[in-house]
From TrEMBL:
Record's protein name: DNA-binding response regulator
Keyword Transcription regulation: yes
Subcellular location: Cytoplasm
Domain Response regulatory residue range list: 3-116
Keywords for this protein: Cytoplasm, DNA-binding, Phosphoprotein, Transcription, Transcription regulation, Two-component regulatory system
């Protein structure tokens, strides 16, 4: 059973999500503060986190960074902050998706299903690939530096990287990446791609400012150059 940690300081939202998620056979933990969320995640590691940004003690972006220090669990952000800078900050910190309040429960459930489908998607056998000083094994979901150190990627980072690496040398359009990784309703969210490619370059490219392997084709899409 998938365990979901819901973090929100509004009791009515916690109650509504707990009822709706349990009715759909999810195992649910709840927390009303950032500190409680980090403690709950450490005590009972979730399979997915639904996180409000506006918490009373710790900003939600800091909670994301705290979680990303030790886990790649998917994080879906909830927030009444409509500004794009808040979305960018959450995605850049390591969130996998973003839902703006007020939201419909069915919309959130669809996002949760999409994330869990990506987690369960099988990988075809492919040879190990090179990016800078890293070896990427998509079958094992592993990235190793040449010194043997493992590089951790979040599920969404893996999905974006895999789409590019499975088509070496070929242009993958923005529309195709957004549809395949996030779904057809995300085809205008090009800021998602900018954030995730920037994250991948920081982790994998020798010089993220001058990438040699994860290439942007302005206005068109992205390309993995072997």
């Amino acid at each position: 059973m998938t365990r979901i940690l819901v973090v929100d300081d509004e009791p009515q939202i916690l109650r509504a999500l707990r009822i709706n998620l349990r009715a759909r056979r999810y195992d649910v933990d709840v927390a009303g503060t950032g500190a409680a969320a980090l403690k709950a995640a450490a005590s009972h590691p979730p399979d997915l986190v639904v996180l409000d940004l506006g918490l009373p003690d710790i900003d939600g972006v800091e909670v994301i960074r705290g979680l990303r220090g030790w886990t790649t669990v998917p994080i879906i952000v909830l927030s009444g902050r409509a500004g794009s800078e808040d979305k960018v900050a959450a995605l850049d910190a390591g969130a996998d998706d973003y839902v703006t309040k007020p939201f419909g429960v069915e919309e959130l459930l669809a996002r949760i299903r999409a994330v869990t489908r990506r987690l369960g998607a099988p990988s075809e056998s492919v040879p190990a690939l090179r990016i800078g000083q890293h070896t990427v094994d998509l079958a094992d979901h592993s990235v190793l530096r040449d010194d043997g150190t493992e590089v951790k990627l979040t599920p969404i980072q893996w999905s974006v990287l895999e789409k590019l690496l499975r088509h070496p040398g070929k242009l993958v359009s923005q529309r195709q990446l957004l549809q395949d990784v996030w779904g057809p309703e995300y085809q205008n969210e090009t800021n998602y791609l900018r954030q995730y490619l920037a994250q991948l370059r920081r982790k994998l490219e020798d010089d993220p400012a001058r990438p040699r392997h994860l290439i942007t084709e302005p206005g068109m899409g992205y390309r993995y150059r072997p």
